[in-house]
Design brief:
The chain has 236 residues and is α/β, with parallel strands linked by helices. Helix 3 crosses helix 5 and helix 7 packs across helix 9. Bound molecules: ligand 9D3. Ligand 9D3 binds next to strand 3.
Length: 236
């Protein structure tokens, strides 16, 4: 599941150019039985299987041997704290990271207690394992590492905009599916374009993700633009 990471996009290029290294470790290789068993039935009964302590504890020890000291062990779990952009920035500043993905009903709690520095979730939905969550975290984190993003994106511009949804984007042709590009974007008035984009970002955030506006410091101009957006919303 991790091989495609090296194949595509800016993170793939970074891995291929040795700016980043991703080393999958298979816990089954650390099982002590010939079948490579890493799970067992839950004490107390109930459905499904539980990840056993020992194979994963050994696998994590092996993984820690492949990253610099000071690299935390992060368990992917629906019970974890929500992974967000601030977490990605913090991870990007670390020397390395050991991400631990589970399957089945979850980890034996004693494995988490003895081996996990943190537990993170990537959202309130049910996946069948932690691998895709680990991929999401690797992508979000590695693109913030020095030299990974090209000039086509700027992390600085991104950090300026954090806390708000993006404004709408348009490219050629001037009319698509009967819909024209908003006129302000065609007129070359850069101050008017900046104001329009900021207004759209604020307006869309208030419509789609009002929770984000609570955590964002709005300037006087922002409040004016948001009022304008809401006024325009009521007539169109
Ligand atoms: C159907 C089983 N669920 C019973 C309420 C518990 C459950 C166990 C294991 C739900 C999901 C999983 C597997 N998920 C992950 O390992 C996981 C995950 C996720 O499912 N959603 C969001 N973030 C993450 S991080 C790891």
């Amino acid at each position: 599941m991790f091989a495609p990471l090296a194949q595509f996009g800016v993170v793939g290029r970074a891995i291929r150019r040795n700016l980043a290294r991703v080393t999958p470790v298979d816990p089954r290789a650390f099982a002590t039985d010939p079948h490579g068993t890493v799970d067992d039935r839950p004490y107390g009964g109930g459905p499904g299987m539980v990840i056993r302590v020992e194979p994963f504890a050994t696998a994590i020890k092996a993984a820690r041997g492949q990253v610099p000291s000071g690299s935390p062990v992060v368990f992917l779990s629906p019970q974890g704290k929500a992974f967000d952009q601030a977490t990605a920035q913090r991870y990007a500043g670390l020397p390395g990271l050991v991400l631990v993905a589970g399957r089945y009903e979850g980890f034996d709690e004693r494995l988490i207690e003895s081996a996990a520095d943190e537990e993170v979730s990537v959202g309130d939905f049910v996946m069948s394992g932690g691998e895709i969550a680990a991929l999401a975290i690797m992508d979000a984190t590695l693109r913030l590492r020095p030299g990974v993003l090209g000039d086509e994106h700027s992390v600085e511009e991104e950090s300026f905009a954090t806390g708000l949804l993006d404004y709408p984007h348009y490219t050629r042709p001037e009319v698509a599916h009967g819909r024209p590009v908003p006129r302000v974007l065609m007129e070359g008035n850069h101050e008017a374009i900046r104001r329009w984009r900021r207004k759209q970002a604020l307006g869309r955030t208030s419509l789609r993700r009002p929770d984000l506006l609570g955590n964002t410091e709005l300037s006087d101009e922002d409040r004016r633009l948001l009022d304008e957006f809401r006024a325009e919303q009521r007539v169109t």
